[in-house]
Design goal:
With about 425 residues, the protein is of the alpha+beta class. The protein has two domains: about 240 residues, BirA Bifunctional Protein, domain 2 (2-Layer Sandwich); about 90 residues, Rossmann fold, CATH 3.40.50.800. The protein has 15 helices and 16 strands. Helix 1 packs antiparallel against helix 5 and helix 5 packs parallel to helix 9. The longest helix is centred in the N-terminal third of the chain and has 17 residues. The radius of gyration is 28 Å and the shape is elongated. The relative contact order is 0.11. The structure holds adenosine monophosphate. Adenosine monophosphate binds next to strand 6, strand 10, strand 11 and helix 11.
Length: about 425
């Protein structure tokens, strides 16, 4: 038997899928309320797209992509994140010719060759939004408010918003020199990763998880922003205060690539340490241009669904109750199968979830199966009942049994289970 999963992948099983659907639905509802529309892009794209957008110097492109050559000789890559595909689609379908901004959201599997650990997988799922065509800090505030709204819907509390500005290519260039000057003499003391990143992208040294102390005392980009970038950050701060969204300025929050501009943010569960980042987001005003389009501002965030579910599962109260069967038909003999099938059809038409035995089990076996599937009611159908046009209806929750006419079975069940 071939029974082992590829490393870093998961089966999402019945019992879990209901939770996934619930979380996904909360995200869809939040997005709909904020005027965002779903986009579904392919799970693979041309490799070059990610090299360009995620960036050659990043860990993702350097060592985490699932890249393969297809039978036509093209290099393709399983998407490691969702922004690249959304930006490509924005250009591909001339969304720029429509009224701006274009507000999109997505949900779906992403792929990164990482060392698997709790909450970190090789196929994982992200939810995210992208807004193209609006540079105003009010959009930054809206995107953060949407994330907060989503987490509120899930009943999550105590989350923190961390905010920073990484300026624009102009003010960042000056700051980069300043930072390189700060780190240069420290190089021998830095971790291997940092020494490697120093030449590739000195900004990344700020979010090193090892050399935290050096990052803490490094010059802050927010002290060196140009007037426009400074104003953007201040205005955003004002909007967030207006919305009652508390935030913390965190100068260590960075994005490595040049097309990222100004706002970067994370929403964090402070009780979870390094696993606590629920979403990461930011502005990427240079991204569409990088792909060959006209300069187009953009901002978005993405979060991992697995990580979110791990947090939600710590308090099962927050999760929706498991789905259950409204009624199970217990047949007292195989000759009742035709009647059973007919009745199941009627119940399902009426919007009741209904099932019956397909294995010719004893009554005891059928009742066991019904309770395993958490049936709310069991309807017993046998010779004697059928001749009188009734079923014996057993209440599996409150106990007791009553006779109900087959004609009125749907109505009775709908009334008794307070069906929506
Ligand atoms: P990133 O796209 O790296 O900024 O990640 C955004 C979010 O996606 C993170 O906060 C995680 O929740 C999630 N994430 C990233 N990589 C993985 C992974 N390998 N496995 C599970 N979740 C991930």
């Amino acid at each position: 038997m071939l029974t082992n999963l590829p490393r870093g992948t998961n089966d999402i099983l019945p019992g879990e899928t209901e939770r996934w659907q619930w979380v996904e639905e909360q995200f869809r509802v939040a997005c709909r309320l904020y005027g965002y529309r779903e986009i579904r892009t392919p799970v693979f794209e041309h490799t070059e797209l990610f090299q360009r957008t995620v960036g050659e110097s990043t860990d993702i492109v350097q060592k985490e992509m699932y890249t393969f050559t297809d039978r036509g000789g093209k290099s393709l890559t399983l998407r490691p994140e969702g922004t690249a595909g959304a930006a490509r689609a924005y250009l591909e379908h001339s969304f720029y010719a429509e009224p701006q901004p274009v507000k999109l959201f997505y949900l779906g599997p992403m792929f990164r060759f990482e060392r698997p650990q709790s909450g970190r997988y090789r196929q994982f799922h992200q939810y995210g939004v992208e807004v193209f065509g609006a540079a105003d800090p009010a959009v930054d505030a809206e995107v953060i408010a949407l994330a907060r709204h989503f987490f509120q819907r899930l009943g999550l509390q105590g989350l923190q918003v961390h905010l920073n500005s990484i300026g624009c290519p102009t003010c960042r260039a000056e700051y980069r020199q300043l930072l390189a000057g700060y780190y240069q003499p420290l190089l021998p003391q830095l971790c291997e990763d940092c020494r490697g990143r120093f030449d590739r992208n000195v900004l990344r040294l700020l979010d090193c998880k090892v050399d935290v102390e050096y990052a803490r005392t490094a010059p802050k980009l927010t002290d060196h922003l140009c007037a426009d970038c400074q104003k953007h950050l201040e205005t955003l701060g004002g909007y967030l205060r207006e919305l009652g969204i508390a935030y913390e300025l965190n100068p260590q929050l960075v994005r490595g690539l040049d097309y990222y501009t100004r706002t970067v943010f994370e929403i964090i569960d402070p009780t979870l340490g390094t696993q606590g980042t629920l979403i990461g987001g930011g502005r990427y005003d240079g991204l569409v241009e990088e792909l060959g389009g006209k300069p187009t501002p953009g901002i978005g965030f993405a979060g991992g669904l697995e990580r979110l579910l791990l947090i939600l599962e710590k308090d099962p109260q927050r999760l929706p109750p498991a789905t259950r069967l409204d009624v199970f038909l217990a047949l007292l003999g195989s000759k009742f199968v035709p009647e059973g099938l007919r009745l199941l059809g009627r119940l399902r038409q009426a919007g009741l979830s209904a099932d019956m035995d397909f294995l010719g089990r004893s009554l005891k076996g059928q009742l066991r199966y019904a309770s395993k599937n958490q049936a709310r009611f069991v309807a017993l159908l046998g010779e004697e009942e059928l001749s009188r046009g009734v079923v014996a209806l057993k209440d599996m929750e409150q106990g007791g049994q009553v006779e109900v006419s087959i004609e009125r079975l749907e109505k009775t069940l709908l009334e008794r289970s307070n069906h929506r």
